Amino acid sequence: MDLFSLPRLGVVVPPENPTAEPEFNHLLGTGLNVYTARFPVTPGTGLRRMLETYNEVLPDTLGDFGGMRLDATVVACSASHYLLGPEGDRALCEELSVRVRHPVRSSTQAVLAACEALGIGRLTLVSPYEPWLTDVSRAYWERAGLAVDGVVPVPAGRTPAGTDQYDPYAVPLGRIRERVRAHLGGRRTPDGSALMFTGTGMATLAALRELAREEPGRVLLTSNLASAWWARRATGARGGPVHPLLRRLDAGIRRAA
């Protein structure tokens, strides 16, 4: 297939996110061409205000693609869309889709679509966020009709004062592995539930590969994995090999259908 005849996916990411583009490219393989725009830097702004700013400037950031034809766009920033709640999130995505004349979805809406396709009604959240933002995330999923069975906090490290330090972009693989395994305690995941890794900035592919080997039937979701699945569906992408985790998710959805 001609490289430039492939469907085109736009991805909007926070300026410091080092994870989204590499994970999208690994997950989607050669079936889609991925193009990115980044939210503006907001120096001296607290986290909540920064996330609010992302929602405010999202229409302009989508405009940074100019006149390039896109077949779909993913807004790869879960945290800003948690603040909107599921209703506001859906309304904003629908408004933007009309404006740019192609489907636009947030990573949070992509997760909800994947849960619906899988028949998932319960989540265990694996969260790299500060506690207040984890609470906002939990409230989002619960308002969307999903029960949250528990939360596995995954801090990036410890401060000199001995408190947890939260930075989704700096969480090491070993800490993800340690926290998740300690929470699961060898238990199998109940039917109708998923282990959901929140956010687009925490690198999760290696951890998910290990967890998938340990329990083949466990439903594993991340913001980027669900977004990649949605992007293939929205663009009608058919060609090219995709990542084993995306094939695994596709197989689970086929079984649930």
Automatic annotation (TrEMBL):
Highest taxon of source: Bacteria
InterPro entries: Iso_Racemase_Enz_sf, MaiA/AMDase
Pfam hit, one: Amdase
Matches recorded under PANTHER family: BLR3294 PROTEIN (PTHR40267)
Protein name per its UniProtKB record: Arylmalonate decarboxylase
